[in-house]
């Protein structure tokens, strides 16, 4: 397996000897194949099937065996990388937040893989272990309120890698409309607007709410006109519309200011508490300011609403007189009940008139610390009778404190009353001590009671890093209990710090003691499980602070002992604690077998380590040897501490040939063959100077002589790449070892021919014949020239022909379409230029002919097509025979038909299948093909072949009896001239056979075999 030393079982290889295939084998549990008694010659192994989840590496792995070298074991290594993953991420273009519910289609450019996915709550979707290659990812749909873009991205998936594709979308824009009083700036409710898209069809109406606001979310991008259509009676209409442009992802605001007609408001209040009073009646009179007669106008009688108000709009300037005719029940009119005043022109005025409660009890509820009134506290009032003391009593009612923390009970009879709080507001301690009061019963007698509630307490836990930064630590879990061990909260006492490293617990009883203990630390920090105690006080927030020490870090550096001390990438280490347990990576989050590899900087960095650590170098890279004296090193890593271990490797006299793919970030190319010689032309190495790059694109040649000159020339490349035959030479210098020579290969071009129906320009057409030649008329061979061809190709199930490893000017001609389609002569022949490392696509469209395509399949296995099945095609109108057709070798048959209604009847079944003569009804429209898939059940039975044991020839005339599972004879048959006996149309079950009689020259079998 790539990147590991683990063997892979289940990989199948074809085995070649001197270029000829001699067998195949599958790797065992250790990932190995053994070939014993190998003869002298070139042995090659070509992988044809990889284990599940891995990519096939078809590069031949070769070794030359020489039996004169004695009983030597030769080894060739092959590497499989896991199939790649593709992660598709969808985010908001403005905020970056993930977008769930986005649908993407994924289609392979280089293969047949195709699927669709939907992003999850994290805005991503991952396709795991899919074939390597080039894919097109297309956004198909997005959830509201986002704008679908239908954008496409192309991504290349490489074995063993995860590639991420990121898409962003903007939300549909929003429009906010605000309506304000031009004089006061206050919002105006009830104004209706028409919103019309100038450059589109969107149109709607909306009315401002109590905040004077309209908000339209997720409307189309474009220009809009906003027109005021209707206003309340006291508001003057604004007749000038406003225009605004809305772009994607933005919200725009338009504000309208309106003049408001003057108004008169009468507010009726409780004189003691200030609460508004409803059902007070006023007679209102108006005296004009500009009359010579001074007449008085009767405006009528009005009653205060639930908010204690009477409002008159569009009033004139002049003198007003308010005559209170009746007060609310339980309240009396103050003084004469008459109020007079002058109202200036174009102004609004509020007149407040108080009423005195009669024989009343007023109860105030307040915060004992701040004195602020508490709303929402419930009280019970009980009447004891005419005496001055006692207990119990009759419940008069329950009352709820209002916004100012008070309530009033009026018209109470003479006697003693008990008032008790039965429910607090949730943030204060209930005061259950009742208060007793004497009410005289006189109308003007008002008694006041006051109840003070102490506020509940809070606890704030802060979690910080115990270092110079003192950073807040999120995700730290605490267990909170009271002094009796009872859990706090609704999660069994568990609380977790937020992004600010805090936990805030409200609503705690004053006087209680909270015990807090850390039970899970943040990754990379040490747990501090020492409990702390906090005493809760009324209206105060107790504070507990915890500090966590960061865990330690270990850095392993691997460098060459040569003069340049260059870092060494890919060196393997085993890292354990002193007790032998493996050291996991990523602060203990990732499981590990203790094996690590140095990065490009020659380093291994492990965070979250504390204790004694043992690091052992287990395998170095080509061109270097391990220093046994420092192979194993031990170090103690303390909290908030970083320790570094340095390992040196001695370079050998080594040359590394490195092969990369042009246009990539150093992507290696395996399977390229080089010829290596010295300055005299003599070959280097045991295989006549031939070397092949491994999975890392490398050839490592060790044991070279200092001062010699080496020449390397590429002699054979792999499919799909252009050979680079330019040789390179280098003088071997031991002080610079290992030395490198780098070679690059360009990808050859590719041509994709797409054959589609012209009806929707999407439906692929399989089986269309094309002729492909060069500009000079030579046929284009497939598979990079390895397979001879007459230039004819056929589209696959995706309607495509994909040619890899082609370059130059190509001429593509459609030779023959499939049944039901006609060739477009205007585009029948197309010419294209394919350059190295280039992919070109051609599109051909065929117009469909109306007709029927019948597909005959096995009912048990619908992937199996049934040939030689005959159908009659008849008209529905009169039953007239139109045509008789038979399915071909692919189980398909096409019948061109005029528009109309038809039915098909099976008249002859394919060999081995039962006839199904059920009519199949269908309709044909012009230019469209109707496809019907029809199933047949296979005939079940037993086939016996009676043969001469000496010659293998069939024996004629041998009779057999067939018995059912109960040993009852059910059929008898005799072998034909080829020795075959058939028992057909049998149901599933167990049967017995008996050979009944035999020709004289053969003995008869008496034992009955079980079938």
Structure notes:
This protein is mainly beta and 1011 residues long. The protein contains no helices and 75 strands. The strands form 21 sheets. It has a four-stranded antiparallel beta sheet with strand order 2-1-3-4, with no helix packed on it. A four-stranded antiparallel beta sheet has the order 7-6-9-10, with no helix packed on it. A four-stranded antiparallel beta sheet has the order 14-13-16-17, with no helix packed on it. It is extended, with a radius of gyration of 46 Å. The two termini are 45 Å apart. About 1% of the residues have low confidence.
What is the count of β-strands? 75
What is the CATH topology of the largest domain? Immunoglobulin-like
Structural class: mainly beta
Strand order of the largest sheet: 2-1-3-4
Distance between the termini: 45 Å
Please state the second-level CATH architecture of the largest domain: Sandwich
Report strand %. Answer: over 45%
Biggest sheet record: 4 strands, antiparallel
Q: Give the overall average pLDDT.
A: 87
* Helix content percent band: under 10%
Shape: extended
Q: Note the total helix count.
A: 0
- CATH class of the largest domain equals Mainly Beta
């Amino acid at each position: 397996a790539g990147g590991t030393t683990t063997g892979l079982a289940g990989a199948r290889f074809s085995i070649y000897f001197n270029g000829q295939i001699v067998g195949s084998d599958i790797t065992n549990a250790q990932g190995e194949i053994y070939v014993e008694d190998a003869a002298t010659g070139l042995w090659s192994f070509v992988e044809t099937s990889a284990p599940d989840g891995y990519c096939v590496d078809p590069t031949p792995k070769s070794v030359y065996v020489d039996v004169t070298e004695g009983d030597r074991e030769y080894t060739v290594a092959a590497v499989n990388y896991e199939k790649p993953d593709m992660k598709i991420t969808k985010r908001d273009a403005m905020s970056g937040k993930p977008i769930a519910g986005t649908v993407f289609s994924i289609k392979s450019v280089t293969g047949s893989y195709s699927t669709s996915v939907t992003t999850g709550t994290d805005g991503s979707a991952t396709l795991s272990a899919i074939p390597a290659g080039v894919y097109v990812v297309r956004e198909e749909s997005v959830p509201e309120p986002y704008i679908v873009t239908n954008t496409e991205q192309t991504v290349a998936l490489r074995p063993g890698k995860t590639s991420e594709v990121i898409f962003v979308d903007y939300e549909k824009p929003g429009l906010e409309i605000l309506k304000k009083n031009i004089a006061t700036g206050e919002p105006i409710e009830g104004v209706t607007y028409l919103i019309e898209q100038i450059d589109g069809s969107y149109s709607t109406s909306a009315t401002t709410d109590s905040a004077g606001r309209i908000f339209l979310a997720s409307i189309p991008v474009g220009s809009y006109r906003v027109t005021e259509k209707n206003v309340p009676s006291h508001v003057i209409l604004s007749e000038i519309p406003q225009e605004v442009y809305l772009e994607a992802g933005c919200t725009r605001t338009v504000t309208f200011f309106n003049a408001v007609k003057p108004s008169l408001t009468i507010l009726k209040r409780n004189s003691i508490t200030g609460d508004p009073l409803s059902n007070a009646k006023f007679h209102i009179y108006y005296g004009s300011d500009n009359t010579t007669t001074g007449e008085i106008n009767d405006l009528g009688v009005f009653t205060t609403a639930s908010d204690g108000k009477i409002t008159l709009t569009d009033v004139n300037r002049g003198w007003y007189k308010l005559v209170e005719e009746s007060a609310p029940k339980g309240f009396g009119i103050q003084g004469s009940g008459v109020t007079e005043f002058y109202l200036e022109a174009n102004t609004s005025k509020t007149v407040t008139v108080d009423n005195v409660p009669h024989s009343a009890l007023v109860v105030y509820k307040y915060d004992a610390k701040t004195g602020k009134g508490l709303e929402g506290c419930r009280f019970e009032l009980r009447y004891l009778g005419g005496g001055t003391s006692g207990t119990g009593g009759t419940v008069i009612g329950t009352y709820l404190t209002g916004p100012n923390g008070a309530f009033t009970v009026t018209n109470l009879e003479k006697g003693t009353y008990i008032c008790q709080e039965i429910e607090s507001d949730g943030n204060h301690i209930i005061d259950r001590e009742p208060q007793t009061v004497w009410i005289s019963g006189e109308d003007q007698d008002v008694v006041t009671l006051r109840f003070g509630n102490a506020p509940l307490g809070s606890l704030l836990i802060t979690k910080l890093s115990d270092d110079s930064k003192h950073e807040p630590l999120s995700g730290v879990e605490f267990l909170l209990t009271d002094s009796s061990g009872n859990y706090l909260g609704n999660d069994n006492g568990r609380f977790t710090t937020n992004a600010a490293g805090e936990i805030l617990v409200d609503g705690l009883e004053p006087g209680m003691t909270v015990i807090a203990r850390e039970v899970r630390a943040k990754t990379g920090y040490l747990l501090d499980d020492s409990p702390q105690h906090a005493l809760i006080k009324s209206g105060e927030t107790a504070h507990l602070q915890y500090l966590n020490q960061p865990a330690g870090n270990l850095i392993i550096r691997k460098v060459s002992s040569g003069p340049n001390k260059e870092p060494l990438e890919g060196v393997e280490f085993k890292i354990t604690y002193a007790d032998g347990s493996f050291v996991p990576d990523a602060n203990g989050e990732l499981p590990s077998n203790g094996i690590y590899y140095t990065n490009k900087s020659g380093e291994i960095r492990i965070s979250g380590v504390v204790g004694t650590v043992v690091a052992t170098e287990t395998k170095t890279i080509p061109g270097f040897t391990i220093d046994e004296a420092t192979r194993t090193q031990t170090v103690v890593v303390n909290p908030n501490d970083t320790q570094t271990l340095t390992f040196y490797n001695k370079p050998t006299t080594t040359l590394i040939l490195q092969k990369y793919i042009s246009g990539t970030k150093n992507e290696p190319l395996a399977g390229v063959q080089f010829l290596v010689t010295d300055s005299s032309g003599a070959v280097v190495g045991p295989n006549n100077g031939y070397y092949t790059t491994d999975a890392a694109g490398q050839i490592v040649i060790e044991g070279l002589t200092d001062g010699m000159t080496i020449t390397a020339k590429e002699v054979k490349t792999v499919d799909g790449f252009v050979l680079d035959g330019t040789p390179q030479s280098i003088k071997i210098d031991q002080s610079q070892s290992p030395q490198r020579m780098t070679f690059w290969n360009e990808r050859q071009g590719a041509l994709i021919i797409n054959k589609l129906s012209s009806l929707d320009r999407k439906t692929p057409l399989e089986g269309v014949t094309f002729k492909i030649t060069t500009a000079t008329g030579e046929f284009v061979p497939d598979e990079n020239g390895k397979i001879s061809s007459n230039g004819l190709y056929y589209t696959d199930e995706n309607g495509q022909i994909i040619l890899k490893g082609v370059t130059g000017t190509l001429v593509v001609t459609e030779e023959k379409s499939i049944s039901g389609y006609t060739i477009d002569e205007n585009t029948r022949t197309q010419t294209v230029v394919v350059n190295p490392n280039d992919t070109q696509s051609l599109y051909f469209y065929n117009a469909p002919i109306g007709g029927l395509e019948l597909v005959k399949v096995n009912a048990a296995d619908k992937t199996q097509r049934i040939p030689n099945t005959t159908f009659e095609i008849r008209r529905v109108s009169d039953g007239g025979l139109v045509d008789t057709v038979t399915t071909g070798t692919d189980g398909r048959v096409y019948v061109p038909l005029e528009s109309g209604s038809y039915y098909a009847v099976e008249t002859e079944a394919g060999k081995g299948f039962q006839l199904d003569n059920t009519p199949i009804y269908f309709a044909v429209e012009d230019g469209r093909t109707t496809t019907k898939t029809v199933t047949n059940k296979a005939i079940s039975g037993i086939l016996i072949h009676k043969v001469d044991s000496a010659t293998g020839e069939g024996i004629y005339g041998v009779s057999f009896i067939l018995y059912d599972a109960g040993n009852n004879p059910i059929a008898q048959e005799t072998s034909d001239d080829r020795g075959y006996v058939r028992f057909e149309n049998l149901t599933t079950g167990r049967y017995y056979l008996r050979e009944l009689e035999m020709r004289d020259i053969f003995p008869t079998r008496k034992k009955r075999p079980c079938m």
